[in-house]
Design goal:
homodimer; 6 helices; 61% helix; 0% strand; elongated; DNA-binding
Chain lengths: 145, 145
DNA sequence: TCTTGACCTGGAGTCCACTCCAGGGTTTAG
DNA sequence: CTAAACCCTGGAGTGGACTCCAGGTCAAGA
């Protein structure tokens, strides 16, 4: 039986949804360890390497920074003893996410208030200073572009 | 009675939480219309201008882009007839926010799964391939740094 | 008078995560 | 033999929203 097939960068890009440029850039930045090359110097991804890229794509999609991804890959190299530190890293990512969520919720509330404010003004036929709005202006108010 | 006091850029920065550099940059980019100047060329913000900056700071905090802020200020100049278009702009901001929220929720779910995965492995005393982990390694697993 | 401090302008630099490009090699189909 | 695909490297460019800086003006205080 032949060894597990290796894939080209195009295959891995397709598989993971990362662009070829991104794959090359991850390698240059040391986020992804150097991938094997064919005789002609083209990247050939082994199954292990493919799986690693898939995991990195998943971590990226959790909003992790590339710096954290790099740390995570380093921990993978340390085996099972680093499980605790991996969890800690993931929890840092969770905290980042929680902060972003809080930020969004806050912004959302503020925005709804502001939208409500304008809708009230329009409904009441008033301008921002509380003065009534002329009829011919009111017909313009529902225009959206 | 004297006219309402004008403020220095330092005051307005303090009031709005925007940096002096940001205030100057908003003006340069045309997000904020040119502010009045004193005889010596220093910015003097009138009450109206202060309120406008406060509003911009609030819009910024809703995650609006500076481009949208610029549009919004332009609509302010058109008076009550632009209320509808202002609402439309705010609704665009709302959609951006909704998209970001969806993104975060998705990321959050993925992250919880991943954290759960590692916690299970540690609890079960297994490494990623399902092989048992040696006792002396297990004591390292709870280490977080 | 000298210094300090607040402010001015225009331009350059920063961060992040890519993305694009020039210039070159190799492999495959016709 | 040649053209088209595919890939390589190192370096430069992008976008958004600032942030920093050099070099200069101006007013008030010791």
């Amino acid at each position: 039986m032949r060894e597990t097939q290796s894939s080209s960068i195009a295959d891995v890009a397709e598989l993971t949804g990362l662009s070829q440029d991104t794959l090359r850039w991850y390698e240059r930045e040391g986020i992804l360890p150097r991938v094997g090359r064919s005789a002609s110097g083209h990247r050939r991804y082994s199954e292990r390497e493919r799986d690693l890229v898939l995991m990195l794509a998943a971590l990226r999609d959790t909003g992790m920074t590339t710096e954290m991804m790099k740390e995570f890959v380093a921990l993978l190299g340390e085996g099972a003893a680093s499980h605790g530190r991996r969890v800690a890293l993931l929890e840092r990512a969770r905290e980042r996410l929680a902060a972003k969520r809080a930020e969004i919720e806050r912004a959302s509330t503020a925005l709804e208030l502001k939208i409500g404010h304008y809708e009230e003004l329009i409904a009441a036929g008033l301008d921002c200073d509380g003065a009534p709005v002329a009829e011919e202006v009111r017909t313009l108010q529902t225009a959206r572009e």
